[in-house]
User: Fold this.
Amino acid sequence: MSQVQHIALAPERQALREANQLRIVTAQEEGTAIRHLPNGVYGFTGAPATNEIPLFIKPIFECFEVHKRADGEVIFIGYVTEKEKQLIEQGLEPVVADLYPEPHGEALTLVAISGTRVDRRRPPTRDNGNSMKVDIGPR
Assistant:
């Protein structure tokens, strides 16, 4: 019986972590609000829309990956449609996007969205791909 690899182990996601020189949160840091964590870490959360954003070591089903870069900037990792990605990257106007923690439907394009551009996060749907609707401001 073959084991399915969790999406968090995908090479494209590992490349993002390596590019930003991030390490996974430690066992002692698990469950800590992101604002209390040191810079240069990443982890997984089921509560990406809260102010706390607690991070954990192990990814669970349809959880979000969140980075805290060396400069302290918070980055939300997820999947959007190609059209949403283009609008986010252009950054000319506000965008409302459904950010999925894993590929779902047409949302197959990996993005890293800066928390400084996120004006509003709504709680994940908990069904149909567990998307989190985010309002993203222009650059």
